[in-house]
Amino acid sequence: MLEKTYLYLSTPEVSGKEIGLFRTLAAIFGGLFVAYLGMTLLAFIIPMEIKQSGIISIMFNTSAWACSATWIALSYTKFEALLKSTVPSIVFAISLYFLY
Known about the structure:
Largest sheet: none
Helix content: over 70%
Keywords: Membrane, Transmembrane, Transmembrane helix
Organism: Aliarcobacter thereius
Protein name: DUF3649 domain-containing protein
Transmembrane segments: 20-46, 58-76
Oligomer: single chain
């Protein structure tokens, strides 16, 4: 079962012209999680008051979301899109856990 799922996710789509529903949803929600967690981590790392760094993070969040969603949507396979949306989210979440 796991091998069948892996083969399904790692097989490229027949037509490269269509993005597909899976990659679209992975790009939207994965990009959202990556952008929010990344901007929250940026707010903690910047050596300013949390109010000022929070405003900077909110201003750049839209751009970060668009860039990460495009990066995820341009994946060659569904498995690659899944990895591009989960691995950075997990890394940012663990970093926030240790910094907070």
